[in-house]
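Give me the fold.
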Amino acid sequence: MSLWHAPNRRDFLKFLAASPLAGFAAERGDTVIGKPGDAINVFDFENAARRILPPAHFGYLATGVDGDATVRANRDGFDRFHIRARRLVDTSKIDSSIRLLGTDWPTPIILAPVGSQRAFHSDGEIAVARAAGAKKHLQMLSTQTTSSIEDVNAAHGTAVWYQLYATTRWDLSRAMVKRAEAAGCPVLVFTVDQISGSNRETLKQFSAQDPRDCRVCHDNSTLQSRNIRRPMFNGMDLNGVAFQPPVTWDYVKRLKDTTSMKLVIKGIVTREDAELCVQHGADAVVCSNHGGRADEIGSSSIECLPEIAAGVGGRIPVLVDGGFRRGTDIFKALALGANGVLIGRPYVWGLGSFGQEGVEAVLDILKRELHLAMRYAGTPKIADITRAYVGSK
């Protein structure tokens, strides 16, 4: 679908106010900011995006699966941990820098791969890359990107990490991997928690409130037509192809034998699989339940994180995503063993609301909140944040 263009916005707002969507409230109620600088926290951008985006587009972003229990669990999970703050520590200088797979970054906040970003703003992934580059954040690019890997790398100023969904045809998967490698991407992020098909009830509910004919903008009748606006599939024959089929650990070996890029496995929620990631040569692992969008496991990423860290045992870095909205959320994850934290929906709220400026504002808020949490906890450096700084309720 294309963006909801300005001439239609007034009618859309009237429709939204009279629809069941008006009942969806964020943490600050119905407050809607007029510019990025008005935001108090990242939830303000959720409200703004909800008012601007077409219902089906916002529903795609908001949805989990089934009854959205895992989406809710991702937020509720943070309440099960509290920060054990230390006093009389010199925190006049805060250093939030990290080193991850051979590269230094000034912050552990990473932009997670999110597909179809032009559905939220006309500049899509390019605006996000410019924001991430300007603020010096690591960015991961989705297989389902609506901008090419080459253009995103140019906009960011540094080669991003490329996220891969497997396909039922190895030659197509290999072609995408080699293209990312040729573009200079240093890391391949292989997502393993999404298998074709999911019951996204919230998306269906939002879509039912959308008065537009989606076929005007895109044709979902075949996989080929559905992906015509996704540059990573340019020139590929997708007839008879399925994305995200069930795969095994043999696929990991196949990827490692194909590319010189480092390999990160994303979608791990148990200690057993974390140990297998190490055994199969992964360079890092992402503790992730796909933001509650894949399967309804019902447990939060933050609660899964300690066993993932234990399974890895410090041998490779551990990253995590799922429901991160506050600097204190990020602090808790770092204390529980994460080396970096991925955010997804918040920066897309910023994108949908105000484009590049909105993404930058979201990143600034989260970094500012993280620094404040570090200061009050008595941890001037990321390395100071250990398990001793978080307790369980």
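Residues 1-26 have pLDDT under 50 and may be disordered.
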